[in-house]
Amino acid sequence: MKNSAELRSLSGGLAEIHDTLGAVCPHPPPDFPPPTSVPAVPDEVADHLNALAKQLEMALELSRSLEAQHTTTQPTISVPESKVAPLESLAQDTQTRVRSRVEVADSTTRPSVREARKKECEPLTSMFAEWKKID
């Protein structure tokens, strides 16, 4: 019953707003007649409205709580982020230096490695040539 009274109070407020708007704009839209009376609201509907209102309040409370947590954790997150950027730069510089040293080392050792392999293969090549001559 209390909810019915609240709804009547709200609709009374709506009627007052409508009257105020009527004073400002004397021509209401033709398909929107001014409210004459508030229909009775069944208890079932009122209970459902109350449950929805409670859910809405809980959702708003959760939203505020999450917003507060976000505000609190933001500095905690930004400190490590500020340390990661210089470390990433240092790692990239180190990788670049290592790659250039490897390239220099490869360019100086490759000819000697090729020569060593060639010398290893010479006896095998000559053995293969001799074997072909025997057949």
Major pleated sheet: none
Low-confidence segments: none
How many structural domains? 2
Radius of gyration based on Cα positions: 43 Å
Mean pLDDT equals 76
As a percent range, the share of strand residues is: under 5%
Number of β-strand runs: 0
What is the rounded distance between the termini?
116 Å
How many individual helices? Answer: 2
Shape: elongated
Order of helices and strands: HH
As a percent range, the share of helical residues equals over 70%
Alpha-beta content class: mainly alpha
How does this model look, in words?
Helix content is 85%, strand content 0%. The model has no long low-confidence stretch (mean pLDDT 76). It has two helices and no strands. The protein folds into two domains: 1-41; 42-135, no CATH class. It has helices spanning 2-24, 43-134. The longest helix has 92 residues, at 43-134. It has 135 residues and is an all-alpha fold.
